[in-house]
Amino acid sequence: xxxxxxxxxxxxxxxxxxxxxxxxxxxxxxxxxxxxxxxxxxxxxxxxxxxxxxxxxxxxxxxxxxxxxxxxxxxxxxxxxxxxxxxxxxxxxxxxxxxxxxxxxxxx
Length: 108
Ligand SMILES: [Zn+2]
Prior knowledge:
Bound molecules: zinc ion
Largest sheet: 2 strands, antiparallel
Number of domains: 1
Oligomer: single chain
Distance between the termini: 39 Å
């Protein structure tokens, strides 16, 4: 049987008697996207083929296997298991900021 424990309080989660919740966090640099409408004129097709070449170059470098870490742009993908109690705390205050904790107290 698969055994999970809460990544916040470290308590084992019995998935039969309580629900387990998964939190996924992705961190990546914000990139201003070019709107598709601006990219439809004829002189854009030349650029497109350039991008294709870059992509193939990238894929080839990834195939080599020894160069995967060259893209470190701060992108992280995190995954946590939470018990029910920690799930409730997390959704109230996902970033753990102190101000919203104080808000919780005043609500009680
Ligand atoms: Zn927990």
